[in-house]
Amino acid sequence: MKDIRGALPGDPPGGRRAVLVWGVGTLVYMVAVVHRTSLGVAGIDAADRFHIGASALSTFSILQVLVYAGMQIPVGLMVDRLGTKRVLMLGAVLFTTGQFAFALSHSYGMALGARAVLGCGDAMTFVSVLRLGSRWFPARRGPMIAQGAALFGVAGNLVSTVALSRLLHSAGWTPTFLGTALGGALVLVLVALFLKDHPEGYEPAPRTGADHAGLVYVRRQIADAWAEPGTRLGMWTHFTTQFSGMVFLLLWGLPYLVEDQGLTRGAAGGMLTLVVVANMVFGMVFGQLIARHHGARLPLTLGVIGVTALTWAAVLGWPGGGHDPMWLLVVLCVVLGACGPASMIGFDFARPANPPERFGTASGIVNIGGFTASVLTLLAIGLLLDATGDNYRIAWSSVFVLQAFGTSQILRLHRRAERLERERIAVSRVESVHRTTAAVVTD
Predict the structure, then answer these.
(1) What are the b/e assignments for 251-267, b being 16+ CB within 10 Å?
(2) Whole-model pTM?
(3) Most buried in the list 68, 254, 307, 366, measured by CB within 10 Å?
C-alpha cells in the first residue's frame, strides 16, 4: 500500500488574521468574476459595437471558458511553486489589463484578444483562494472555506447582472468597463499590502534543487496528484455537477427562455437572477452540512445530479410541445442554482487526498472538470440548434449524456477514494497521539 504518513500535517490556527488575509484573496476572486460575467449583460451591446452575429458573439464565451480550463493545471503548478500572493497579483494584472483593453476595443479581433487575456487572469484566482484557505484555516473548515469562496464569486455575478447592466445603459460601454478595470487595480494594491501566503510557523517544507527542477517537478506534481483517487473523484464530481448551471447562465439560458419559452427579456433576466440567488442559498447550506457531516458529500453530489436530470427531463418532456408552465421554469432555475455549490464538493474530495504542497495542482485538476464539460455542452447545444432548426428540447438533451458519463466515473472511484481517506485520518490520529505523548514525556 502507498505510504500515507504525514499526509495530514498540523492544522493552521485560523483566527482573525486568517479571515483578513483570506478575505483579501476572495475579494480578488469576486472582482475577477465581475470581469468574467460582464459580457453576459452586454451581449446585445457587443453585437452592435463590433458588428457581429450570434455565432461570433458566442465565440467570446467559448474562448473564455477554453482559456480558463486550459490554464487550470498550469495555475495549480504555479501556486504550489510560487505561492498564492505572486499568482494572485499576476492574475489581477492580467484580468485588469484585459478588461481595460476590452473597454477601449473597437474591433472584434482586439476584443477577442482582450477576453483571452482576461480569461488567463481570471483562471489564476479561484485555485489561489482555495490554496490560501488551506494554508490559513484548519482542515475541518475546508468545506466552509470552499463554499465561502464560491459565494464571493456569486456576489460578483450579482454585481454584473444587477448593477453593471444598469450602469452599461446609463454610462455607456467605455466608462462601464473602465470602471470595472479600476476595481481590478484596487484589489491588486490590497494583495500587495495585506496578503501573505501562510501564517508564521506554518511555512511549507523547503524543497531541494532536484525537487524544484523544471519539468521533473511539473511531471511529478501532476502525476502524484492524478494518481490519487480523491483527485480524480473530485474532478468528475466537478465535471458532472457544474456544467448545466454554468451553460445556462453563461450563454444559452436567456435565448432558451426568450425564444423557446416566450418570456420577455426582463422576465428571463429575472430567472437568471433566481439561479444566482439560489446558488448563494445552496452554497451556505451545503457548506454547513458537509462541515458537520463529512459523509454527506457523496449523497449530496448524487442527489444534485439526480434532481437536475429529473428536472431537465420534466422541462424538456413537458407534454403538448408548447411553453412549459412558469412554476416548472422556476423549479428549473432553483435546481440549477444547486449545481455550482455541488461542484465545490469536488475540492473537498481532493483536499484530504493531497498534502498541502500539492493542493494547488490537485485543485487545478478538479477545476478543469466542470469547465471542460461546459465547453463541450456549449458546442453541442450550438451544433444541435443549427442541425435541428433551433429545437431547444433536442439541444438541451445533450446534458444527459455528460451527466451519465460523469456519474459512472464517480461511482467507479468513490469507494477507493473514501477508503484511502479513512486510512489517512487513522494514521494522522495515531501520529497526533504519539506527538502528544512525546511532549508529555519531555516535560
Answers:
(1) bbbbbbbeebbebeeee
(2) 0.79
(3) 366
